[in-house]
Design goal:
alpha+beta; seven-stranded antiparallel beta sheet; 16 strands; 22% helix
Length: 263
């Protein structure tokens, strides 16, 4: 009996060890089915923990709707396939945008519109941006995302891992040269603060503080207070400026009336 208990303990320890190693490695399968494993960077590992804390694998099959700035948005994920959509009423016109795995269409009163490339790019970027922020940090696992651990920071007596995110030109979208920074709570592993800079329209710097964090059927949704900083401000400095109340509040970013469409 004692030998059996010892054997069970050894087996359990072995399984735990394997799982721990799996969570610290990145697996790549090449075209000829050769598998390559390499250790995850500290940034990748921290972001992976954040993805798990916010919903993890539940995102892969998620289908949710929500309201944002007088529009109804929906994201439907099915593994590597997805469908993002929005609809809004403008006078007598019902405008619907839909992007299915990269293909974008707009209809007005259910009639398909002919769009220039510039229009399609602009509308699809706007749609993708809203879904991107609403489902953070899910999209940070994309291959075009580069994550770098910066430092540990304390904000309002809570400790955070600070992660810088940049994008590769291939697959990184139109604004691939934008820079993001995330403050990930070391205790909850959730994103409490984020910042980014952008270069279009003469550029800008933004800092967001999460509030109204809630978990809906296993997936975390958050609202944000949106702040502005002078162009050129280093993203690393924003958390200190926030604590010193030196940032200008611009708006509230509200993801409202969240509905799980699987129910």
């Amino acid at each position: 009996m004692k030998k059996n208990i010892i054997l069970l303990c050894i087996t359990a320890l072995f399984i735990l060890s394997c799982n721990k190693k799996k969570n610290t490695k990145e697996t790549t399968v090449l075209n000829d089915n050769v598998t390559i494993e390499k250790p995850l960077s500290k940034g990748d590992s921290i972001v992976n923990s954040a993805i798990m804390a916010h919903g993890g694998k539940l995102f892969d099959k998620a289908d949710f709707s929500f309201n944002f700035r007088e529009k109804i948005y929906r994201f439907e994920n099915d593994g590597t396939q997805y469908s993002y959509s929005s609809e809004s009423q403008k006078g007598d016109s019902l405008v619907k945008d839909i992007m299915t795995s990269g293909k974008f269409d707009r209809t007005i009163n259910n009639k398909l519109q002919t769009l220039s490339k510039e229009e399609a790019d602009r509308y699809s970027e706007a749609l993708n941006s809203v879904i991107y922020f609403a489902t953070l940090p899910y999209k940070l696992q994309d291959a075009s995302v580069h994550k770098k651990y910066i430092e540990q920071k304390t904000i309002k007596s809570k400790k955070y891992d600070v992660i810088q995110v940049t994008f590769g030109q291939e697959g990184g979208g139109k604004d691939f040269d934008d820079e993001y920074m995330y403050w990930i709570n070391k205790n909850t592993h959730k994103i409490d603060y984020l910042a980014y800079n952008y270069h279009v329209n003469e550029g800008g710097v933004r800092f967001r503080a999460a509030f109204n964090t809630r978990v809906i059927d296993g997936i975390t949704f958050q609202d944000y207070i949106n702040y502005e900083a002078p162009v050129g401000t280093d993203l690393k400095d924003l958390s200190s400026l926030y604590e010193q109340e030196k940032l200008k509040k611009l708006s509230n970013i509200l993801t409202e009336n969240v509905v799980n469409n699987h129910k």
